[in-house]
Amino acid sequence: MAVVPYKDQNDDKKSQVATMFNNIADKYDFLNHFLSAGIDIIWRKKAVSLLAPEKPKQVLDIATGTADFAIETLRLNPDKIVGVDISEGMLAVGREKLIKKGLTNKIELKYGDSENLPFGDNTFDAITVAFGVRNFENLKKGLSEMNRVLKPGGTAVVLEFSKPRSFPMKQLYQFYFKNILPVVGKIVSKDNAAYTYLPESVQAFPDGKDFISIFEEVGFKNTKWHSLTFGISSIYTGKK
Ligand SMILES: C[S@@+](CC[C@H](N)C(=O)[O-])C[C@H]1O[C@@H](n2cnc3c(N)ncnc32)[C@H](O)[C@@H]1O
Fold it and tell me: Residue 47: helix, strand or coil by DSSP?
């Protein structure tokens, strides 16, 4: 059974995820930085730095949300970054941010489903996705689509939560993730489910070697796994 945000509803995971992110879009950036004490910013920087040697010119940021990862990727001086997402609410917050920062000529945000990407084969030099793959309805389909639109020799970088496994970080993290984060998240976002879905979806998501096996199964090569901050997050890279 897929982990979904609103268990009392019959909609599929994709519609529920889009609804949830539409509901929390205005508070998403604040909660992200507040609940992670700003560490998410460091994780995105690290993920982008792994792409630096590739000097990608055409970049696709999947599940771009409010465009933080796309904006960070500008450091690599690409010609163009396209960000896609299924939540119009998140994209609207992202577009406002781009206008304020004067970045609309470099980053384009558009509606797009990772499981059916609106691009031809072999289009991008690099593909990034931060905290997105866990939300896909069909993980293998989403990763296969990433592989399809990546140019041969191009690199995909996936940043996602994982599960710390050693004492005492495992216990501290579980306490925080299950008892504190859902309460603060609910009060600030006013969405009853979003910050309960977060720990539940992380718990159910394949991490580490399990993720790497699926990544390779859909065609990625030279895969690498970098564990961050005691294993709370991981970066996975792979080449086409
Ligand atoms: C946790 S947010 C991450 C946003 C951004 N990448 C970041 O680093 O802050 C997850 C995003 O994934 C998007 N998403 C979930 N499933 C998707 C899909 N199938 N295709 C595209 N975007 C999707 C959600 O709408 C949401 O904006």
Answer: helix
From the CB of residue 236, how many other CB atoms can be counted at a distance below 10 Å? 25
pTM of the model: 0.96
Going from the C-alpha of 29 to that of each of 25, 87, 128, the distances in angstroms are 8, 14, 18
3-state secondary structure of 203: helix
What is the whole-number distance in angstroms between the Cα of residue 168 and the centre of ligand 1? 30
**How far is 87 from 6, CA to CA, in rounded Å?**
16
φ, ψ for residue 136, nearest 5 deg: -65, 145
pLDDT (tens place) for every residue of the chain, 240 residues total: 689 999 989 899 999 999 999 999 999 999 989 888 899 999 999 999 999 999 999 999 999 999 999 999 999 999 999 999 999 999 999 999 999 999 999 999 999 999 999 999 999 999 999 999 999 999 999 999 999 999 999 999 999 999 999 899 899 989 988 899 889 889 989 988 888 999 999 999 999 999 999 999 999 999 999 999 999 999 999 999
Ligand 1 contact via 162 beta carbon (within 6 Å): no
Q: Which residues neighbour 49 within 8 Å (Cβ) at sequence distance 6 or greater?
A: none
Instruction: Count CB neighbours of 180 within 10 A.
Output: 12
The residue to mutate among 11, 45, 46, 64, having the most atoms of ligand 1 within 8 angstroms of its beta carbon, is 64
Distance CA 63, CA 84 (A): 6
The answer on whether 8 is annotated among ligand-binding residues is no
